[in-house]
Design a protein that fits this description.
With 164 residues, this protein is an all-alpha fold. It has five helices and no strands.
C-alpha cells in the first residue's frame, strides 16, 4: 500500500465565487431588513463609504509598493516575507468584507430606487448607499490587486521546466 506524501497547506487565492456568494447573501439580508424596518432605521451614514475608500487607497498604494519590492526594482529595498504574509491576510479579509459591504449597500440602494412609496427619507438615503457601493467595489478591487501583488514570481528555471 503506497502512501501519498502529505501536501503542505497552501493559501489559495480568493475565489470569485466566494465574493459573489457573500455579496448576494448580504444583498438579500439588506433587502429583507430594509423592506421590514426602513421606517425605524436611522439615515444611511456617509462615514462607512469614506472609510472604505481610504482603506482601498491604502491597499492600492501598498500593492504598488509591494509589487515593486518583490520584483526588486532599482531603488527598492527587499520586502520582509512576514510582511507579505500579513498583506495577503489583509487583502483576503478586505476583499471579503468589501464584497459584503458591496452586497449590503447595493441591496439597500436597489430597494430604495424601486420603492414606490416616495418617502422623503428615500431621497436622502440613495446617494450614500450608491457611494458606499462604489467605495466597496473599489475596496474589493484594491484588495484583489494587493493579493495578486504579493505573489512571488516564478524563477526563470521554473518556467523552462514547465514547457514541453
Amino acid at each position: 500500500m503506497s502512501r501519498q506524501p502529505a501536501q503542505e497547506p497552501r493559501l489559495q487565492p480568493t475565489s470569485a465565487s466566494t465574493l459573489v456568494v457573500a455579496a448576494l447573501a448580504s444583498a438579500a439580508v439588506a433587502w429583507l431588513v430594509i423592506s421590514n424596518w426602513y421606517i425605524k432605521m436611522p439615515p444611511v451614514p456617509w462615514l462607512p463609504a469614506f472609510t472604505l475608500l481610504a482603506l482601498a487607497i491604502v491597499e492600492f498604494t501598498l500593492a504598488q509598493q509591494t509589487r515593486a519590492r518583490i520584483e526588486r526594482r532599482p531603488g527598492r529595498l527587499p520586502v520582509e516575507p512576514l510582511a507579505v504574509a500579513r498583506y495577503v491576510v489583509l487583502a483576503k479579509a478586505s476583499s471579503l468584507a468589501g464584497s459584503i459591504f458591496l452586497g449590503f449597500s447595493s441591496g439597500i440602494a436597489v430597494w430604495l430606487l424601486v420603492d414606490d412609496r416616495q418617502l422623503a427619507a428615500v431621497q436622502r438615503d440613495v446617494p450614500p448607499s450608491i457611494v458606499l457601493a462604489a467605495c466597496s467595489a473599489a475596496l474589493v478591487a484594491a484588495a484583489l490587486w494587493l493579493e495578486r501583488a504579493c505573489r512571488v514570481p516564478k524563477r526563470p528555471d521554473e518556467d523552462k521546466s514547465e514547457q514541453p
